[in-house]
Each structure stands twice: as structure tokens, then as C-alpha cells.
Amino acid sequence: MASLKEVKNRISSVKSTRQITSAMKMVASAKLHKAQGRIENMLPYQRKLNEILTNFLSTDATIESPYTEERPVEKVAIVAFSSNSSLCGAFNSNVAKMLERTLEDYKSLGKENILLYPVGKKVEEAVKKLGYEPQGSYQEMADKPSYVQAYELAGLLMKEFLEGRIDKVELIYHHFKSTGSQILTRDKYLPINLDKVAEEATETAGKSNFNNDYIVEPSASRLIADLLPKVLSQKIYTVLLDSNTSEHAARMLAMQAATDNANELIQDLTKQYNKSRQQAITNELLDIIGGSLK
To answer: Which residue in 227, 213, 176, 239 sits closest to 49, CA to CA?
Structure first.
């Protein structure tokens, strides 16, 4: 059995750890609140954009856009979103595992035909471990989501697709559903599926406030074609916010679990300390009684 001093030192050590995890939980909670605020501020713009898009997609207009072109996949790009730091549970490892499974699906193309765009330090490290060269570093975006940087990344992906250097783009990220639920998602980004876009836009915008009384020049199909790059840019920014918010939620939950475990361990160690102390006192009393009887 451990000595009283050893148990006391362990209790002190666990209490120090509990202070750290409790502080990290509060910091993550504050960051989560800010991240949720960014999503709320972005939603009115996204709802209006989706409302306009849904209205026009519900017409009989023929849509012709290079972003909808389906072609044989000879070269693919994968954009994976993670965090820059750890201590957020399985958040980063789940992204890395999903990335590995996705790479397995495209291994027939060869490494030279798979382009990886890691957003976040942890997934960037995972990409290098897998033997791939990252197509740039986007660690700053993971910590501080920026529409400008998201717009630039979206523009790069769209340009590569239009010029035929890539035939398909996929996104891997966590979708923030609630504080207790972050859903790991693998989503096709390009070519864009208008049916899916219309379905998602309808869910986001709702149908009650739709106004179809538009006068469109030169045509609805031309307007939709011009609108799609904005939708694609907005998609990257939305995913970036989703991933960032999910990270803070995952870290808050992980630190809460660590704090709870520390509390349980302190209780167990305190019981062990009291039991050892009681046993030591009993032994001393027995020695005293034994000595007096001699």
C-alpha cells in the first residue's frame, strides 16, 4: 500500500490537473459562444442567398454552368478540416481516419493524382504521415475563420476545376449540430449537384417567406450560373465555421469529462488516504498497548 505522503502528493497533483482542465473548459466554452455568434451572424445572408437560389431552381429554367459538369474522375482534390491544437477528444483523429478511408477509395488514381488541402495543423501532420504533400498550409484559417481566406480557397478550387486540373472536390469536416453532437461529414463540393443544393437551400431558407415575384434580366438560368460561385464560396466559409465551432464544443466536452474524472479520482484517493491514516493510527495504538502490557 502507498505511504500517506505518496497518496497526499497524488491528491495534490490531481487537484492541480483539475484546475487546469476546469480552466480550459471555461475558455473553450467562451470560444464556443463566440463561434456560435459568428454562425448566427452569417445565417441571415445564407438564408437570403438560399431563398433566391431555391426560387430560381424551382422554375423550368435550363441551367448551364461549368461547375455542374460531371466528368470521369482522373484527378481528385480533398479538403479536410481539423484543429491546430489537441485536447479535444477524438475530434482530430476522426478526421484523420475519415481521410484515410477516402484516400483508400481513390488509391487506384495514384498518389500523384490526389491533391490534399489540409485546413488545420493536426490534419496537415496526418497528411504528411500518410506520405502526401499538402497543397499549401491553411492553419490560420482553422483558428480564426475568415471569409476572405475561405473565398480565396474556394476560388482556387473552382479555378482548378474549371481548367480541368481536377475533376472532383470533396470536403471532410465536422458539422455542428449541437454542443453535444458534432457529425463527421464527407461531402462532394465539385461538381455541384443542383438537386442537393435546392434541397439544402429549401431546408435553410424555409418556404413561408418565399417571394417569386422577380423580374430577371437577361434570364433566370444566367442568374443562377452567376450565383453558383457565390454559393460555392459561401459553402467553404460555412464548413469552416462548422468545423471551428465543433472543435470548441468537442474540447469543452473533453475538458468537462477530464474534470469529472479528476473529481472521482480525488474522492477515491481521499478515501484511500483516510483508510491508510486510520490504519497507521490503529497500528500505533496497538504498539502502545502492547508495550504497556510487557
So the answer is: 227
